[in-house]
Amino acid sequence: MKHVLKKIVVTTLGIAVLACLAGFGGQQSVEAATDSEKPTIRIDKVNNLSPNFIMGADTSTLISEENSGVKYSDFDGQQKDLLTILNNNGVNYVRVRVWNDPYNAKGQGYGAGNADLNNAIKIGQRATKLGMKVLIDFHYSDFWADPGRQIPPKSWQGYSVDQKAQAIYDFTSSSLKKLRDAGVDVGMVQVGNETTASGICGVTGQDEYKLFAKGTQAVRDFDKNILIALHFTNPDKTDTMLWYAKGMADNKIDYDVFATSYYPYWHGSLDNLTYVLKTIANTYDKKVMVAETSYPYTLDDTDGETNVIKTTDDIKPAGYPATPQGQAHALRDVINAVANVGPKALGVFYWEPAWTTVGSANRTANLPIWEKYGSGWASSAVIGYDPTVSATTYGGSQWDNQALFDAKGRALQSLHTFKAVYTGANEQLPDPMLPSDEPAVESLLKNPSFEDTDLSAYQLSGPIKLTQDTPKTGKNALNFYSDDNFSASVSQTIILEAGTYEFSPSIQGGDTDSTSDLEIYADIDGQNQSSKVPALTGWKKWVEPKLTFKLAKETQVKLGLNIKSNAKSWGSTDDWVLTKTENGDATDSGDGSQSSESKSSSSQNESESSQSSDESHPSQASQSSESKSSSSQNESESTQSSDESHPSQASQSTEASSTDQKKKKSLPKTGEEIALGTGVIGIVVFISSLIFYVKHRVD
Predict the structure, then answer these.
(1) Distance from chain centroid for Cα 335
(2) Three-class DSSP category at 403
C-alpha cells in the first residue's frame, strides 16, 4: 500500500511541475512557433465563399519600390520576394496598371511606379511563375486616369474621337502581344480606369462609347478567353452606377466584368455595394468585382509625405479603427459584400498593398529617391503634362499607411485575411469596430439627420434625394446635383411654442459659380426670414448657416433650404438642428421679426464666404476622392484647398493615435488568461501534494 501511495504522490508532483512550466514558461515559445501560421487578430469567416474567388493585389509600384531599396519580409521577419509573400498568403491574382509613355522628353519618369508596359511585363512574368494570373489595367493616358481627369497620351493629343478609338485598339493589341510573347498569363484586361464622369481618354458623352467599343474589340480579337472588365467608381451613387451599366448595354459594348472601386471611408454602405453589384449582375448578366479597395492600419505618416487618409474624422464613415485589426476587418467585409452577390461575384483587389515607406520619415531625404526611381506618387517630370501637379505638390507615397506591410516592409497581421476568410480566426475576440460614441443630433425637428428613410416629415422638390453619399453623421444625407442649371428645396413644417429659436442645417458641396444662390429660411405666418448659405468650397467642407427667430405665441413655422445653382454643382445637407434658446416673454413683438443675432450670423456667414472664395473646387465626380495622387487629394479625394492650414504631422499623428487608443476596444492576447490560470493551478497542486507527502511519509 505504501508503494502505491508513493507512486501516486510522485506522479502528482510531476504533473504539478509540468503545469507550472506550461503556465509560466510555455506561452512565449508557442507564440513564436505559430506566428507565421496563424493570425493573432480576429478575422471572421465569409460563408459560401467560392474557392475560385479572386483574391487580388495591385502591385504596380513594385519595381520602383525595389529599386528604391525597399525590402519585404514575412510575419517572422524573413526577407522574401513580395509576390511570393502575397501568394503564400492567398493572393492569386496581380493587377498592374499600364500608362502609354510616363516619361518626359529627357527620359525622366513621372513616378507612381513609372508604370509603362516594360514594368508591367516584369511584374507579370514574376506573378506568372508563381501561378498567379494577371489583370492589365490600361489607363490610356501617360499618367493617372480617374474620375477627376482622363488626360490623353502626349502622342494622341489633337486626335479626333475616331483617331483616339483606333489608337486605343492598336495600343491594346500590340501591348497584349508583347505581354504574351514575354510569357505573361493575362487573365483579364481592364479597358480604362475609373471611367466615371471624365470619360475615357478625355472623351465623354455619347462619343466615349466608340472608345470603349474599340478597346473591348481589341481584346476579343486577340484572345476570346481573356475577361474584359470596365471599371467605374462611386457605388454610393446608386443611380449613377446603374446608368453607366445601362449605357454600356444600350450601346452594345462587349464586355464580361463590371468593376468598381470601393473605399470604405468614401463609398457608402456595404449593403448598398452588394445591391448595386447584384442589380447589375442580374440585369445585364455580367460578372462583378471590386477592382480597388484598401484601409489604413495607422494614421501616422512614415515617409514625410502627407497621406490621403490621416485623421479620425477621415475614417469615421467606415467605422473601423486604423489598426491592422481594423484593416483586416475592413477587407474581410468588402470580400463578404461582393461574395453576397452570388454566383456572378468574381473577386476583390487590394490596391497597392506594398506601396510602403521609402527611406525614413524625412521628406527632404526621401525626395531624391522618389525622383530617381519613381516611387513617389508623382515626380517633377510630370509637371507640364498633368496640370494638377505643381512644384509644391509632387512627392512620395500618400498610401504608405494603407499598405499591408509596415514602414520596414514587414507583413502585417492583416495580410492573413485573404486565407483566413475561408475558415475564420480568433472569432472569440471583441468586435473589431470603432465604438459608436457619436451622440444623436439633438433637434426639435423630426428625423433631423435623415437616418429614417421615411421622409414624410419633409417636403422635397427638384433634384434632391436621400443617399448615403457624404453624410456628416450617420449613414444618410440629402444629396443635390444636376447636369443642368437647377432649383431644389427641402423643408419641414412644425408647430412651436413661444420663444427664441435657432435653425442651423449642415451643408457641403462644390463647383458652384456666381449664379449659385443657397439660403435657409423660416416662413412664419407668411413672413419669410432667410440667411445666405456661405460658399460651398469642397468635399466634406461643411458650413453651418444660422437663422434665429422669435415667436410671441404658439405658431406654425416652415423651415427649409432653397437651392438655385449652376449645372454640375453638387452637395449634400445633413443634421438639421433646431433648438430653443430662450423661452417666450411679454416683451416679444409677436411679428416674427428676425433678431439681431440672426442678422449678425448672416453677416458673419457672408464674410466667411468671401474668405473662402479662393479655395479650390472639385468636379462632381471627384467628390468621392478616387485619385491616388496629391492633386487628387485636392481635386477628387479630400478636395482640400492648397492654402488651407494644417497642423504639423507630428502633432497630427499624436492626436490621431491618442484618439484611436481611447476609442478602440482592447483585443486580449490569445491564450494569456489560460496560461496564467494553468500556472496558478500548478502551484496549488504542487504545494498540496508536498504537504500530503510530508504528512504521510511513506518511507
Answers:
(1) 14
(2) coil
Distance CA 194, CA 232 (A): 4
| Pairing label, strands 93-98, 464-467 | unpaired
Note whether 216 and 165 are within 8 A (CB): no
The number of residues making up the chain comes to: 699
Residues 111, 373: Cα–Cα separation, whole Å: 7
Distance of CA 617 to the CA centre of its chain: 21
DSSP 8-state class, residue 154: G
Q: Alpha-carbon distance 386 to 110, whole Å? A: 10
Give tens-digit pLDDT for 123-177: 999 999 999 999 999 999 999 999 999 999 999 999 999 999 999 999 999 999 9
Q: How far is CA 647 from CA 310, 326, 346, 392, 656, in A?
A: 12, 25, 42, 18, 12
Beta strands in 326-372 (DSSP E): 345-351
Q: What is the pLDDT of residue 577?
A: 97
Q: Which one of the listed residues 292, 305, 502, 637 is annotated catalytic? A: 292
Residue 274 pLDDT exceeds 50: yes
- Give the pLDDT of residue 651: 33
The letter for the amino acid at 421 is V
Rounded CA separation 13/21 (Å): 13
* Residue predicted with more confidence, 674 or 248: 248
Buried b (16+ CB within 10 A) or exposed e, 50-65: eeebbbbbbbbbbbbb
Amino acid present at 553: K
C-beta separation of 666 from 11 below 8 A: no
Of 455, 527, 519, 465, the residue nearest 492 (C-alpha) = 455
**Based on the number of CB atoms within 10 Å of its own CB, is 439 exposed (0-12), middle (13-18) or buried (19 or more)?**
exposed
Q: Active-site residue 292, yes or no?
A: yes
Closest by CA position to 397, among listed 435, 353, 430: 353
What does the pLDDT read at residue 3? 45
In the predicted model, what is the mean pLDDT of the chain?
A: 83
**Whole-number Å distance between alpha carbons of 361 and 274:** 39
199-211 in b/e burial notation, b at 16+ Cβ within 10 A? bbbbbeeeebbbb
pTM: 0.74
> Rounded to an integer, what is the distance from CA 406 to the centroid of its chain?
19
| DSSP characters over 182-226 | TT--EEEEEESSS-SSS-BTTB-GGGHHHHHHHHHHHHHHH-TTS
Indicate if 194 belongs to the active site: yes
Q: CA-CA distance, 126 to 224, in Å (whole number)?
A: 24
Residue 208: predicted pLDDT: 97
The number of CA neighbours under 13 Å toward the Cβ of 135 is 35
∠ CA 159-163-167, rounded to 5°: 105
With H, G, I as helix, E, B as strand and everything else as coil, classify residue 467: strand
Q: What pLDDT was estimated at residue 634? A: 36
Calculate ∠ Cα 151-157-161, nearest 5°. 90
How many whole angstroms separate alpha carbon 177 and alpha carbon 651? Answer: 51
